[in-house]
Structure formats: C-alpha cells, structure tokens
User: What shape does this take?
Amino acid sequence: MVQYIIKRLLLLPLLLFIFSIFAFVLIQAPPGDFVTSYIAELAASGSSVDQAQIDALRSMYGLDQPMYVQYFHWMGRMLHGDLGASLDWKRPIAELIRERVMLTVLLGAFTFVLTWALAIPIGIIGATKQYSFLDYFFTVFNYIGIATPTFMTALILMWLAFSWFGISVTGLFSAEYVDAPWTLAKFIDLLKHIWLPVLILALDGTARLARIMRANLLDELNKPYVEMARAKGMSEWRLVLKYPVRMAINPLISTIGWYLPLLFSGSVIVATVLNLPTIGPMLLRSLTNQDMFLAGAIIMIYLFLAIIGTLISDILLAWLDPRIRMES
Amino acid sequence: MEPVTDLDVGPKDVHDLEVAETIEDWTGAIGPGLGPVEDAEAINVAPNWKLVWWRFRKHKLALFSGVVVIVIATVAIFPGFFATMDPHGSRSTMSFVPLQRLRFFHDGTFEPFVYGVTGARNPETLRMEWVTDEEVIIPVSFFVEGFEYKVLGFITTNIHLLGTAEGPTEENPFFLLGSDRLGRDQWSRLMYGTQVSLSIGLIAVMVSVFLGVLMGGISGYLGGVADLIIQRLIELLQSLPAIPIWMALTAALPRDWSVEKTYFAITLILALIGWTTLAREVRGRFLVLREEDFVVAAKLSGANQRRIIFRHMVPTFSSHIIAAATLAVPVMIISETFLSFLGLGLRPPAISWGVLLQEAQNLQSIALAPWLLLPGVAVIITVLALNILGDGLRDAADPYSH
Assistant: This one.
C-alpha cells in the first residue's frame, strides 16, 4: 500500500510538468502577447508608447526570448511560489487569488459531501423499492437533474428567490463582511450564503451518482447471499445496509476518478452566474481581458486540483480494492 | 449538468455479449410479437438492426423521446419556416414585450389569434410597460407570407408556418415568446438558435466518433506500444478539467473571425476533448471481439485485416457506437451553450441557445423579463429527450442480453 502511494507520488512531478507545458501553450495561444494588449490599453487611454519603450517592456518580461526559455522562466518562478503579477488588477497574483482558491476548495468540499449524502440514500431507496412511486419520482428527478445545466438551475433559483422573496442570492458574503478579516461571524455569514451554490452543484452530481448506485445495488440484491441472509431471518434494513450496499458503493468509488477533478472546475459557471468570489469568475475575466499570467496561474491551479483529485481517488481505490494494488 | 466526458455507456462486461442458449430465450428477450413459432423463425433470420429495433420499440418512453428529437431536428433543418419574424430584425420601441399566448378558439369557432398589447412608458422608471389588451384581437393564420429566407441554403421562399395577416406592426405585435432587449422576436430567434446549437452538437459528435473509432480501433486491434501510448494519452486528456480548458481554448480564438469560422473552431475544440470516451468504448469492444469465434473463423478463412475489421467487427458494435454518440450529443450541446453563455463561444450576430441565454445573464433582466429564460427550457427538453433516447438505444444495442 505504502509502496503504491509512493509510486503514485513519484508520478506527480511528471504529470505537473506535462500539464504546465500544456497550460503555458494555452496562455500563449491568443495572438499577440500581453505587452501588445498593454500598449493597446495605453493607446486607448490616449498616451503613446515609442518602440524603445516597447522593446524595454518586452525584454523586462523576457518576451523577446525563445518560447522554451520563456517557459522555464515562468515555471521557475512558479516553483519558487511566485505567480507573477496581474496586468489587469496591477497586483501580485498570489495575493489576488489566495482567498478565492480557499473558497473554491471549500465550495467543492461541501458539494462533495452533500452529493454523496443525497445520492446514496436515493440510490438505495430506488433499488430496494423498485417501481414504487418514490423510485419513479427519483428517476424523473435524476433525468431532469442531468438534463439541466447548472447555470440554468442557478438562473431559475435566482429568479424564484427574487420574485417570491424579493431577495438577491448572489455572492458568498453579506456586504459588511466582504472585506472583513476572518472571524467566526464571517464564517457563519459564509455558511448562510454558500448553501445555495452547494445545493445547485450537488443536485447535478447527485443525479448521476444515484443512478449508478441504484443500478449497482439492483445487481447485488439478486445475488444468492442476500437470499441466504433473508432466509436466516435477518431484518430487511440491516441486511441491505450491511452487505449489498457496501458491495454497491465499491464501484462508485471509481467514479471519484472523474468526479473529483470536475468538482472544483465544475463550479466555474455557477460561480459566474451567482457572482461568487471563487477563482472561476476571475478566470473568465482574465481570459476576456487577455490577462494571460493570471489566466495561466488559475489554469495551473485547476490542473493541480485535478491531479490531487485523481491521486486521492487512486489511493482510495487501491485501499478498497486489493486487485489494483496487486497489478502495480 | 456539467459537460462530463465520461458517459457510462455500453454493456458492463463480456456477459452481455453471450448469445442466448435456446430459442425460447430469444423470443422471450426480443420477440417481434408474432406466435412463438413465427417468432423463432423471424428472429433466426432477422438482421442485427431489426433485432435492435424490436427491442427498442418496447421502451415506450425512448420511442416518445425519439419523436421529440425528430420534431426538434425538423425545426433545426427548416428554422425559417417555423420562424415568424426576421430573427435579426430589432424594433427599438418594442423591447421586453411579454409573451402573447396563442389562442385557438374565438367565440367557440376555430380562429387562432393573439391578444394585442399596449405599452406605456412608466414615468418613474422610464421603462416601457406592456399590458395585454383583450379588446384587440390579432388573427393568426397558417402558411402565411412573411420575410424571405432560404430553405437548406438554396431555395428562396417566404412561406411561414404561422403569422399574422399583415405581418407584425407597431399596432399589432406578434411575439409568441416575447421580445428581448432590442425588440427582437424570441420565438424566431429560438428557431434559428435550434439550428446552430443542434448542428454544433451533431458535428462535434461526428468528429469525436471518427477520432474515437480511429484511435480506439488502432488501440484495441493492434495492441502493444500503440495501445499503451493511446491509453496514456486518453488518461491524460480525461484527467484534464474540461471546463477551464475549453474556456481558455475558445478565448484564444481571434475576435475578428467570421461567425462560420468560430462555429467550426468551437466544434473542433469540443470534439478534441470529447473523443476519449468513445475511443475507450471502441477499444473495449475490439478487445472482446478479437477473441470471438467468428473473428477467428474469418481469420482462418483467409480474410484480410481490413475485411475482418469493417465487414465483421464494426457491424457488431455499430449499434453501441450509435447509442454512445446519441448520449454524447447532449453533452456537446450543453458545452456549447455554457461557452456562448459566458461570452466565450459564439458571439452575436450568431444565434445559438447560449447566445440567447446571454440576455438572461443578470438578475435585472430576469426580474424584468423572465421569458428570456425560455431558451434554457429548450436546452433542457432537448437534452432530456436525447438522453432518454440514448439510454433506450443503449439497452437495445445488445439484442441478445436480457
């Protein structure tokens, strides 16, 4: 087990290396570099820049050097924990996104917990009471859940909250706490706001997970060992929860492999609609404003979170299923 | 939902492919509804697609979804016919007109009409406010002449399914689904948006299927080093968080590109990440089929590799590919919608569901004109229908399983 984890951890730098090249190519893809857009911005505000200044700017940021040298500069600085400065915000990126990264992870974690807390019971009810009213209800609910884009759910809930209660459900903090230092009161205020985006995101994941859980459990319930336990007089609920449910959850763990990487990046659109202070809306803004170092840093963070997600799911799987350990 | 690239398609394992042992098993599983003897004989000689169809039509909800998909596809092919007004035509005096519900019976006779609306400017907010005026009756007729459009890009005509006698005017507006900020007719825009959104989904999936079958086929049939490389590539692509990557890629498209160019670029971007699930599916099929008796038999009879792949192997899993592709279309549609919604995908003057929803992006517009959310309902219905249809096809794709 320990050996397996070490092996996976050793792969981590390689993955990060590949992903960082990918992120670098992505942020270099738009035509022109950020000095071009900086000049355009200056020109728009009326001041002119001469060629010498442009060249000075280019060499200052190393933009006159070949691509691979630029990449190593960028990567080297990042490894030292220096994410560079945002052109758009005129502030260091690290300072700009620290709190946002934390809120993104928090949002993802809450969503994860709620998704599983909803999906497992719904799946169990669907399988044990197959073809009952509740089963049909949840099946319809799951289909609609999968078909509704999260931003639609967000828009509809936003509209309902406004037209029924006259409240605006955007943001994660009340006005007085936005720039306040972290206190218990601010955290409670956060909890008062975060439940809605968490619910919207969890409903989506729940629909998928509950369907898989129901199908898995249905397969298990027909097996002879269940019949055996029933024949021995075990109470139905204890029986279901003790054996088939545990068997049915196992394949579910493997879905974490694609679910965890999605968990953090999936909130981008909802966060934009609800105007949440996470890194998603900032990525959108940096992309539309060609603030490429900020965009690159945020994409690297998403990639990093995705790698961590994959790593956790691999370790979980290896821990639960000995066959995976044997293979490697 | 998120544009998840993992689609959970196909049978779970080899057992699904096992052939039923007795004729009773077969008839029980798929019978076309004749007597037992005729059933058995019909099944023995029926080609694969017929078996799939017999099985599929038992799934009533999937059948119904298929009809819904056909209706939506018809709209996508002939948007001009279903539109009532020029989708780009803006009327500055007619912004945010609420929907005018189509009523079919007037005084007990069949006489389709809508009530007129009258607008007055609110002296405080300076905003136009519209009220339904039940005094004014605007008759609606079928197959009326209206603005000119092209059918399938080459036949010019001006016949529309619905319309008012003298066309929409200041006094007699005709907005089935209301109008937007610029006074454009949302119904007509929705019709044209259907064409763009649906075709992007379809083309992106076609490119994905091509890439998926190619890569999955190479991987599954050849095995060895090719398999190893392709599998690692797929794993790498699947571990990427799709949404930020899509955002970055579409943001990199030059802003001055024409609508058509952006359209194809977005289709390609969606397909380049979407092919991995299909490739995995195809590879799995190839691995299973490679060991099957009929493939070994074909090999021993001296059939060359191309014939074995295309004549014997591909037909046995083409129904799986169709099912997987059907389930992939909604994922692509939702991806396009959210990209355009965020302003990174298609941009006006292009019309797609995402572009339409952009109008409903903030609370002010939704509070003022909730009907701007209706294109989202179109997205939900389409995705729902395609998902149920895809599920039905997937279940039917294995006519021999129970």
